[in-house]
Amino acid sequence: MSCGCVLENRTLFKGIHVLPTASAWSFRSGSIERKSTYFQSLRVGTANYVCHRKSYHQAVRQVFSTNLPRYLNGRDRIGMSLTGGLDTRMVMAWQQSRPGSLPCYTYGGPYRECRDVTVARQVAGTCGQPHEVISVGKEFFSRFPHYAERSVFLTDGCVLR
């Protein structure tokens, strides 16, 4: 936790680990029926790995110009969940919203400012957007099962109750 995050396949919870990249596992009657992936990760140095800057840049531009407007330019007002990650920084750089028009937020802990908050605040400031830290504390953790179930329900829609 001193790094401001968990590392490798670990989570904050004892005995619970993150699945490998691109996991697509099937379960039946509480047991794993099949382990597969929904894409093959290409590794630097393998025969299948070819990355040219120009073609990569063109592919990213195409994906961003096609997909981001669907999410960011709708009728409804939106907010941006900013982290310290490259993905949200790329979205903010691409979007170039009017200053003050895209409220940004980051989840922070009760004891000290984490790296996500530090980086997100800088990104929002550079982009001229308001930024708020949503503090996660004792109340959140005491009601975590409720919040986890509600989050999955609101974001997935396929969860059976």
Describe the protein in words.
It is a single chain. The chain is of the alpha/beta class and 161 residues long. The protein has one domain (23-156): Rossmann fold (3-Layer(aba) Sandwich). The chain contains five helices and five strands; from the N terminus they run E-E-H-E-H-E-H-E-H-H. The protein has a three-stranded parallel β-sheet, with helices on one face. A two-stranded antiparallel ribbon has the order 1-2. A hairpin with a 2-residue loop joins strand 1 (23-28) and strand 2. The longest helix is centred in the middle third of the chain and has 20 residues, at 53-72. The radius of gyration is 19 Å and the shape is globular. Residues 156-161 have low confidence and may be disordered.
Summarize this, please?
The protein is an alpha/beta fold and 161 residues long. It has five helices and five strands. The chain has one domain: 3-Layer(aba) Sandwich (Rossmann fold).
